[in-house]
Amino acid sequence: MKKKIGQGNERITCLGKMKTRKDDLKIEALGHLDELNCLIGLTRSFLKKQFEKIDKILEEIQSNIFLIGSEIAVGSKKLKVKEVKKIEKIIKEYDKRLPTIKKFVYPIGVKESCLLHLCRSFCRRVERIFVKLDKKIKLNPVILAYLNRLSDLFFVLARYVNFKNKQKEKYWN
Q: In this structure, are residues 123 and 150 in contact, taking their beta carbons and an 8 Å threshold?
């Protein structure tokens, strides 16, 4: 008997040693995480020459994203609190170089900054889906803290890149 389209393995994926439906929330969360990692990679391709230190920060973030994905998929190594503290330290380091803001900042400026803003907004989406996933399968709480701080880091780095490129911020009134 022939299988009809939509009745075969195209609805199933392997997650570690388990077969899982492709519409499983865990698969969706991992897909969003992968997309964020790709977006960070694209951003890095524009930052490398002028912002080597930020490029290295983003490389470490990509490594941590792989770690998070691995932890979700197969329960391997766990993301540690020290990674959240590193991000908080970097946020402080870059934020102290920037003017204080009291209004919403438009996500505009040089392309590198815009890409970092895109990483920020996409990271927020990833965080939202991981919050949903946490309700279903208790996650390592460090993951949620990391994603939350990570989006804040992207915001600060986006502002910093504009600042270093002498791009004036535009504020929403």
A: yes
CATH for 21-164 (3.40.50.300, 2.60.120.10, 1.20.1200.10, 3.30.70.2740): 1.20.1200.10
Predicted confidence (pLDDT) at residue 156 exceeds the cutoff of 50: yes
pLDDT greater than 60 at residue 1: no
Q: What residue segments make up the domains of the chain, in order of their start?
A: 21-164
Dist. CA 134–CA 112, nearest whole Å: 32
The better pLDDT of the pair 173, 61 is held by 61
Which pTM does this prediction carry? Answer: 0.88
| Spatial CA neighbour of 100 closest among 51, 173, 171, 161 | 171
Mean pLDDT of the chain: 90
The CA distance from 157 to 94, in Å, is 7
Q: Show the tokens assigned to 67.
A: 């770690």
> Do the beta carbons of residue 147 and residue 130 sit within 8 Å?
yes
**How many C-beta atoms surround the C-beta of residue 60 within 10 A?**
13
